[in-house]
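Notebook entry, structure prediction.
Reason for the run: the old model in the group folder had no record of what sequence produced it. Starting over properly, with the input documented here first.
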Amino acid sequence: AMEKSSISVFLLLIVISCALAKDAGKKETKETTAKPKLPQTLSRGWGDQLIWTQTYEEALFRAKHSNKPLMIIHHLEDCPHSQALKKAFAEHKDIQKLAEKFILLNLVYETTDKNLAPDGQYVPRILFIDPSLTVRADITGRYSNRLYAYEPSDISLLYSNMQKAQKLLKTEL
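New structure, fully documented this time:
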């Protein structure tokens, strides 16, 4: 009987250590899979594989020196319209591809630059700035009262506006 109970205790220990090892393995994989997602803080879900700038000043500097247009997305984490547009933007393969040709910045706060709120501080709004650091007032969404607002249903308009920001660049510079 003593042998049987020591064997069952031994087997129980093996089962427990295997279960613990499995849990430890899970924790490690969670940490390692979370690590490559560091840029998530800057992309905030708008395109994790894209390169995002940290500040408005850095974005202006990069636009000027790389000769690429700057695309600024103003949004709020708790705004349902911002969340819906973010989802449409992130899932749109052509937009994600074209976005690689821009200096990108998404802001969840307002800057002191009045040029970034030409018609008010609403979200979501998307503005384009050319490398000469001029806000492109000619590239707007479909609303006359909120010129730079886009909804998920406007995603193709946003795409063509991105193309417009690229095209004018080639002809002007």
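Summary: Confidence is low (pLDDT under 50) at residues 27-39.
The old model has been moved to the deprecated folder.
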